Amino acid sequence: MNPNQIKRNSLNFFISDSWLDNNGNLQKYLLENYKIVAIIESHVESFFKKLNIKACIIMLEKCKDKNVLDNNIVRFVSFKKPLKCFTRLLTKMNLESLKSIILVYDEFCETDDLRIFPKSQRELWDEVRWKKYLI
């Protein structure tokens, strides 16, 4: 797949983190239609300082191949430092850079900056509560 095709098939967005434990319909839809590349949350501060909403970033790639979806590794990423430390990576132009950093980790990893908990997309079908992977 060439880089332009990847970008056209990618979807990144902010959403309240409450869906991680409470929205089976959204979880099912994502599991059936997208490679969930990463779910990212900050443990230090909110992405939206003026709103009383705890949000997360979801990074997705459109995919309909069940084998690819089942074997995909979802990375639950927790930022452990203030968001200003990640500002360069969180801009639209650099989300692909952030993605490439995250994709290196197929196993659990924890540093002073972040924590990455990988989980196969197949395993998430049996889980209703996903937030525990960000704690």
UniProtKB/TrEMBL annotation:
Domain (DNA methylase adenine-specific): residue spans on this chain: 22-112
Gene Ontology molecular-function annotations: DNA binding; N-methyltransferase activity
Pfam families in the cross-refs: N6_Mtase
Homology family: Belongs to the N(4)/N(6)-methyltransferase family.
Protein name: DNA methylase adenine-specific domain-containing protein
Species per Swiss-Prot/TrEMBL record: Candidatus Scalindua rubra
